[in-house]
Amino acid sequence: MFDLLIHGGQVHDGGGGPARRAAVAINGERIAAVGDLAGAAARTTLSAAGCVVCPGFIDVHSHSDTFILIEPTAPSKIYQGVTTEVVGNCGASTAPRQGAYKMPTDWREKNYPGTWSSVAEYRALLDQVQPALNIALLIGHNSVRAGVIGYDARVATADEVRAMGALLDRALAEGGAGLSTGLIYTPGLYSTPEEVRALAEVAARHGKIYTSHMRSEGDQLLEALDETLGIGRATGVRVQVSHLKTAGRRNWGKLEAALEKIRAAQAAGVRVAADRYPYTASCTDLDVILPEWAAGDGREAVLACLREAATRQKLRAELAGSTDWDTIMVGSLAHPDLAPYRGQMLTEIAAALGLEPVEAALHLLDVDELRPSAIFFGMSEVNLWRILAEPWVMVGSDASIRALTGPLAVDFPHPRAFGTFPRLLRAALDGHTVPLPEMIRKMTSLPADQFQLKGRGRLAVGAYADLVVFDPQTIRDRATFAEPRQYAEGLNHVIVNGRLTLRDGAFTGARAGRFLD
């Protein structure tokens, strides 16, 4: 007798081939049988008539490191069919925590069920809270760099690079999935390519991946790609280009050159791939608009720049003509006096305050003490679908988990936190992008192979039973930029490590995820 039997569905195994009508049986945490299982008995039987049955989706670009400790049910991801998240992206990871390293503000201001410093301690706490999905943790370069030399705006010494390498080596040995960089953020933006290459060599020795939010995704996109691909060539490390894009209208024409660089590197033996989300707006902290000279030396130093008359004037003059203010929507704002401005375009906020857009941006950063997030509308719809059509581009939401209630229901997120995967499934089903079998591959076996998540990403006998059952007629995202906190529709069942986590569209209470190393 099987523990769980799913019958009557169209099975996609994650490999990109056509679907077949088959039943899927599960024993414990593994898939036990796939095929004609007529007459088989099971403790629980689910009908998938008219539905797609496929491997659970892998979100390769997430920032849920700490939020999963607060809301282990991970509702905004489970309701998309996500069964595994790769966290620690863009150079910021929740571990290791040592020296002067401070977690990002939105993490730091939350209350947690325990404390941790090392990767080993983090994974122990994660096991204690019992997450609903699987977690793989990249080790952030910014976390490591801050832990060794703080936030100083300078080049690291050779001894400091060796110390960073030792810290990274320990973190990877304790289960880290690879190295990530966020080279537009402090303190990583002060690093040299040589520093990053030295750390990528450590990841390569462990057989782990190197992912990069590159130094530029716009004006210097091609040069940033050269650096990233060069690290792959020099070290042999697997390379992941995070959220591949051409940011800013003046850079939209660079896409073909960027794709050719990646294809040429692949042809030369570099193991490089990329990820992307299905929106033409990005989301990050509003303070990324600040120039490098004002962005370093820690939070108090940045606030001092904003509040000192001479530097405020210098910032105003430098930023006034260099930013497309009408493409920025303000997202989360923590200060209660600023709450009415959440979800508004910066130009609208500026008009309400009687300020120029540049001064309004500086005002928000000052009053809210660098906590504002922003959504930047600067990408091409045509380029978005061209990127997603590449066979080596997988899916990453670039979003932390959120919820409709509790401590993760108070900010104003990008809709990708609730809608990424159903949005792409709907696009595939409606013929707007690659066919459904290929889209499922981009969400399952492709990321499992790139991130070496053994036993994941395929619907096959012996694989872990991470599965999704969805209705192709009704699957769709509902989250919008105006109302982002809306769960998707059409997800019938989600199974994680053999446990029925979402049944008939409702959370069962099961939390069967684990730390993956």
Mean pLDDT level: 96
**CA-based gyration radius:** 22 Å
What distance lies between the first and last C-alpha atoms, to the nearest angstrom?
Answer: 31 Å
CATH topology of the largest domain: TIM Barrel
Question: How many strands in all?
Answer: 20
Anisotropy-based shape:
globular
Q: Roughly what percent helix? A: 25-40%
Oligomer: single chain
Uncertain runs with pLDDT below 50, 5 residues or more?
none
Q: How would you characterize the largest beta sheet?
A: 9 strands, mixed
User: What portion of the residues fall into strands of 2 or more residues?
Assistant: 15-25%
Name of the CATH superfamily of the largest domain: Metal-dependent hydrolases
> Any idea how many domains?
3
Instruction: Quickly give the CATH architecture of the largest domain.
Output: Alpha-Beta Barrel
Structural class given helices, strands, pairing? alpha/beta
CATH level 1 name of the largest domain: Alpha Beta
Number of H/I helices: 18
Topology:
Elements: E1 2-11, E2 20-27, E3 30-35, E4 42-47, E5 52-55, E6 57-59, H1 67-70, H2 75-78, E7 82-87, H3 105-108, H4 119-129, E8 134-140, H5 141-149, H6 158-173, E9 178-182, H7 193-205, E10 209-213, H8 221-235, E11 238-241, H9 255-267, E12 272-276, E13 281-285, H10 292-295, H11 299-307, H12 309-320, E14 328-330, H13 346-353, H14 357-367, E15 373-377, H15 381-389, E16 393-395, H16 416-429, H17 436-443, H18 445-450, E17 467-470, E18 491-496, E19 499-503, E20 506-507
Parallel strand pairs: 1-4, 1-5, 6-7, 7-8, 8-9, 9-10, 10-11, 11-12, 12-16
Antiparallel strand pairs: 1-2, 2-3, 5-17, 13-15, 14-15, 17-18, 18-19, 19-20
